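Hello forum,

I keep getting stuck at the same step: I have a sequence, I want structure tokens, and every attempt I make locally crashes halfway through. Rather than fight my setup again tonight, could one of you with a working pipeline run this one for me? It's a single chain of 357 residues.
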Amino acid sequence: MSANDRPSGPLTQTSATYDSAFLKACRREPVPHTPVWFMRQAGRSLPEYLKVREGIPMLDSCMMPELVAEITMQPVRRHGVDAAIYFSDIVVPLKAIGIDLDIKPGVGPVVAEPFRTRADLARLRDLTPEDVPYVTEAIGLLTAELGATPLIGFAGAPFTLASYLVEGGPSRNHEHTKAMMYGDPQLWADLLDRLAEITGAFLTVQIEAGASAVQLFDSWVGALAPADYRRSVLPASAKVFDTVAPYGVPRIHFGVGTGELLGLMGEAGADVVGVDWRVPLDEAARRVGPGKALQGNLDPAVLFAPTPAVEAKAQEVLDAAAGLEGHIFNLGHGVMPTMDPDALSRLVEYVHTRTAR
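Reply #2:
Ran it on my machine without issues. Output:
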């Protein structure tokens, strides 16, 4: 079944959301208004998020179903966005299969023993639903409360997960990652293939629990040239999308600094290609080609400007999107922790009002 088919049989959990503006835009159908959601909307800048997360480490919070549901719902209640994004972290499936890692405040994911040799592949076992029961439980709670509002499942892409594993943490230059990719291409391919299997399984759990769409987030892939992406990354990303294709839910692909890769990211199998703020949406559409919806792409820093300036820049995004087959309004990256929540609410209202049909 394709993303354009009305769900039936085992996919009836998505039927309540089928006619939502968000899923219509994903399917490139006419919408009542341009749908809006924000990456990293689940928390970040909300005082209610900071309150419920107080004293709870990030990874622990991702494994507490009632807390996950509450955090995921907070921006939906406050901002009136058209979709919820499941609150998680890209390293959750790695933690679930036993990789020794932690998320250090102010640093990010840190791996105790970085992956550097073929022997390290043995540490990447298959992920099963039994490894992440908290995901199934949290999504059950969420879909019951969300009703007709779609829930977007979430996972990190194989390249970004590999980068964290090989570097041992965040990296500016990805020197160990690229050294493996260029120096031992077979080991690199095998590593990404295993991560694609784990990521595909993690997204499958979310879809079977009730997610209406999924987003594959490739934080670091903008560090690559197109030829390297095609040869060394695209096959693994395509494997993830192929894994979830039978479910017929829209598949979104987003990376940072990926203006030169947009066409390839669509080629990997996405129904919706996310665009950061560096490339106007009309130009992004030219690079991606027909048959894909686009998502984006207001510069997050604009939200710190006065409201008239925010609305002017938002209108530029809407104008650039005027000729698209499908458009989902989003930031060109994530919500920043110091952002004024009211500015986000005003932005949602502006986009809805300006695009109402």
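Residues 1-5, 7-13 have pLDDT under 50 and may be disordered. If your local run keeps crashing, start a new thread with the error log.
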